[in-house]
Amino acid sequence: MHHVIVDGVLDLIGGGATLTSLSLVDVARRTGISRNSIYRRWHSKDELFSDVVKSMTRPLPDLTKQSARENLVTLMDVSFDRVTDQRERRMAETIVAEAQNFPDLHEQYLAEIVAPLNHAMKLAIRRGKEIGEIRPDIDENLLCDVLVSCTFAQSSTNFTEGLDLESANRRKIDLVFDGVSPM
Amino acid sequence: MHHVIVDGVLDLIGGGATLTSLSLVDVARRTGISRNSIYRRWHSKDELFSDVVKSMTRPLPDLTKQSARENLVTLMDVSFDRVTDQRERRMAETIVAEAQNFPDLHEQYLAEIVAPLNHAMKLAIRRGKEIGEIRPDIDENLLCDVLVSCTFAQSSTNFTEGLDLESANRRKIDLVFDGVSPM
DNA sequence: AAGTTACGCAACATAACTGTTCCGTTATAT
DNA sequence: ATATAACGGAACAGTTATGTTGCGTAACTT
Question: Which nucleotide lies nearest residue A37, CA to C1'?
């Protein structure tokens, strides 16, 4: 039941609803569960949304590869998968867009979804430095920012025309590693 | 009057409202203009929003510098300024988040806001290739995607801690140009 | 089998936005 | 000065969500 409702919320958000506009009436209609039962379980929309975000957390892969490039591509792919999922992407977009209306939810999102990816990225970068694959003078925050941006922004703007999504992350990593200047 | 209402909408969106949740009652209250007058001028919320997006278009700077790095930094700064503006950033985020509910608006946003920046970026990249500042084998779409992502994503995730925003764009350009691998 | 828990259905008052209408007032133009 | 256009105020019915309550039923426990 819990899972059905959380799932229904994700469906509705994925279908175009907004955190503000989503009504518990909609959720009840969608899931076939009485509005009453929903009110019994969650005392506010915020609590329900919090459980939805909790359901979105997934374990990140371990950094098993020896190559920093490989590890970073893996992380970007994971993040990209998440962005590719219509429901979770829309949920994330809506949380960002309505951060002011749901500040706690936004914070939870940053802490449970964004931060872990960020942390793993930095770890991979640091290891890349240790094994001499990344120059030691590179700003970890800056590089991390660039890479995470690439996976997140892809959804926000549809400017990616004629870009092979399968290999995009790998090619972006190569681009950032090798640079675009002539040797 | 026209301008006052459009401005009021931007204020409200910037203050946390959603395209869906924003009511013309709110707009009337905010602007002090009677709800009646608003209905007379715009027959739907979509038309009003369309004018709001129109008000957000700004001319992009010409690519006057000789250096591709400089031109690209300039473009990223312009884009970053836009993202820094609380109202326009929120408007953009909301349009993306509610693309399904307002497909025409989303298309207009892509065409009038995103596409021009994208186009200018690619032009700058192409010139960089011509003058030998960028390797000819670099995929323009890929590079453009990475750079535009950086400016757009900055808003979506607040992972940018300890990053000097003033110089961030320049340093990102340098990072992408020079690469992170040891020479 | 009896008790507890969870659920669905229905109703309720309250509140908010919509779209439209009618009417009075204030500018603006010629 | 007078006609036209633009505006504000107020009211209207229709729709929708909220939060709560009462009641009947189904399932699960011991």
Answer: C7
Using one digit for the tens of pLDDT, what is the confidence trace for A131-156? 999 999 999 999 999 998 888 766 55
Contacts of A21 in chain B (CB under 8 A): 18, 20-21
The CATH code that applies to domain A60-178 is 1.10.357.10
Q: CB B142 to CB A118 under 8 A?
A: no
- Which residue type does A154 have? Q
Ranges of chain A with pLDDT below 50:
none
From the list B98, B150, B176, the residue facing A179 with the nearest CB is: B176
Q: What is the pLDDT of residue A97?
A: 86
* Domain ranges across chain A: 2-54, 60-178
Which fold is adopted by the domain B2-54? Arc Repressor Mutant, subunit A (1.10.10)
Q: Is A155 exposed, middle or buried (0-12, 13-18, 19+ CB in 10 A)?
A: buried
B4, B87, B5: which is closest to B39 by C-alpha? Answer: B5
Comparing CB atoms, the residue among B114, B132, B168 nearest residue A157 is: B114
